[in-house]
């Protein structure tokens, strides 16, 4: 697994308090990992800080799963 | 009780009578304060009076860019904004039939839209800190209405609905959002009323006197405190019984 994916997973595990093995490529933050809409905003904020990037609102809306997040961030850093 | 040591507070309209006393009360409770307003001189005079733990950032609340910059500037001075008091407000009174779009819009912009923008501007820091206090200064006329103040009453009632919505969104993050609704308070503005006008107003106030800015400040201090952590989305009416709601 890439370094970016590791760092994203760490944030997700810490923020949502879920088991690491639940955070799979296709795991949806809301449907599978128990996030509410405010959690997803906070996750995006945490990603922005961890990677020093800006994630615009329209892009943030497309980040539904762990895989989406890794893909977006990999393309943005 | 009500110890704000280690907390950083931003107060808008701090050059006015009520805002100044709110800043004094938070400062006395141990908070670092950033005083904001349009006029630099009275803010600097208040900062000098308070001594340490007081900063000044001017802001024109009718200017969107200036409003967006304020929370950032306050956080730079203090390290964070843990307590936000949206106290600044203007009136442009006129009979409804005569009220211009400009009179309507300017009051909504300064009183309501700037409050929205400032709340939004401090949320990220409060969410990360898992602690925050937002106190929006509404008015009794936001609940009762007042002839000649359709714009002002709308802005102050709007503040209440906005605060409740935000309170529900962020309650799980340790952030509370409440309003304080003053009734008739002795300020430079009410000093201009003559005795007859004052007497007429007081017939509507069971307490039989005007309130003081210190009594508003005490309500704000309570809502800003750790002790008020389970109070959110409410409006604390401080009006001598003028409207029991």
From TrEMBL, chain A:
PROSITE patterns: CARRIER, PHOSPHOPANTETHEINE. Pathway: Glycolipid biosynthesis; KDO(2)-lipid A biosynthesis; Lipid metabolism; fatty acid biosynthesis. Keywords: Cytoplasm, Fatty acid biosynthesis, Fatty acid metabolism, Lipid biosynthesis, Lipid metabolism, Phosphopantetheine, Phosphoprotein. It comes from the Bacteria. GO terms for molecular function: acyl binding; acyl carrier activity; phosphopantetheine binding. The keyword Ribosomal protein does not apply. Coiled coil: none annotated. SMART domains: PKS_PP. 4'-phosphopantetheine is transferred from CoA to a specific serine of apo-ACP by AcpS. This modification is essential for activity because fatty acids are bound in thioester linkage to the sulfhydryl of the prosthetic group. 4'-phosphopantetheine is transferred from CoA to a specific serine of apo-ACP by acpS. GO terms for biological process: lipid A biosynthetic process. Residues 2-77 form the Carrier domain. The modification O-(pantetheine 4'-phosphoryl)serine is found at residue 37. GO terms for cellular component: cytosol; membrane. Belongs to the acyl carrier protein (ACP) family. Carrier of the growing fatty acid chain in fatty acid biosynthesis. This is Acyl carrier protein. It comes from Gemmobacter aquaticus.
From TrEMBL, chain B:
This is 3-oxoacyl-[acyl-carrier-protein] reductase. Pathway: Lipid metabolism; fatty acid biosynthesis. Its EC number is 1.1.1.100. GO terms for molecular function: 3-oxoacyl-[acyl-carrier-protein] reductase (NADPH) activity; NAD binding. PROSITE patterns: ADH_SHORT. One of its GO terms (biological process) is fatty acid biosynthetic process. Pfam families: adh_short_C2. Keywords: Fatty acid biosynthesis, Fatty acid metabolism, Lipid biosynthesis, Lipid metabolism, NADP, Oxidoreductase. The active site is at residue 152. SUPFAM superfamilies: NAD(P)-binding Rossmann-fold domains (SSF51735). It comes from Gemmobacter lanyuensis. Transmembrane segments: none annotated. CDD domains: BKR_SDR_c (cd05333).
């Amino acid at each position: 697994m890439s370094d970016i994916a590791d760092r994203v997973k760490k944030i997700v595990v810490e923020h949502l308090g879920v088991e690491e093995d639940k955070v799979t490529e296709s795991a949806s933050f809301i449907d599978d990992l128990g996030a509410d809409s405010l959690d997803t905003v906070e996750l995006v904020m945490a990603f922005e800080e961890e990677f020093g990037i800006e994630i615009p609102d329209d892009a943030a809306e497309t980040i539904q799963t762990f895989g989406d997040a890794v893909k977006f961030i990999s393309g943005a850093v | 009780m009500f110890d704000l040591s280690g907390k950083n507070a931003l107060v808008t309209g701090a050059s006015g009578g009520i805002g100044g006393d709110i800043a004094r009360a938070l400062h006395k409770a141990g908070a670092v304060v950033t005083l904001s307003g349009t006029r630099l001189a009275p803010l600097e005079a208040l900062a000098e009076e308070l001594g340490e733990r007081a900063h000044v950032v001017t802001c024109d609340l009718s200017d969107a860019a200036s409003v967006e910059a304020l929370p950032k500037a306050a956080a730079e001075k203090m390290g964070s904004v843990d307590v936000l008091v949206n106290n600044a407000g203007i009136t442009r009174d006129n009979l409804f039939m005569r009220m211009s779009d400009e009179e309507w819009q300017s009051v909504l912009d300064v009183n309501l839209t700037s409050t929205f923008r400032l709340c939004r501007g401090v949320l990220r820091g409060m969410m990360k800190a898992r602690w925050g206090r937002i106190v929006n200064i509404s008015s009794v006329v936001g609940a009762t209405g007042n002839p000649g103040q359709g714009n002002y009453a709308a802005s102050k009632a709007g503040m209440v609905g906005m605060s409740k919505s935000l309170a529900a969104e962020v309650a799980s993050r340790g952030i509370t959002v409440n309003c304080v609704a003053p009734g008739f308070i002795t300020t430079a503005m009410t000093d201009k009323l003559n005795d007859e006008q004052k007497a007429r107003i007081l017939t509507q106030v069971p307490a039989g006197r005007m309130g003081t800015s210190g009594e508003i400040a005490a309500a704000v201090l309570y809502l800003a405190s750790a002790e008020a952590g389970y109070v959110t989305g409410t409006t604390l009416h401080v009006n001598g019984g003028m409207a029991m709601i």
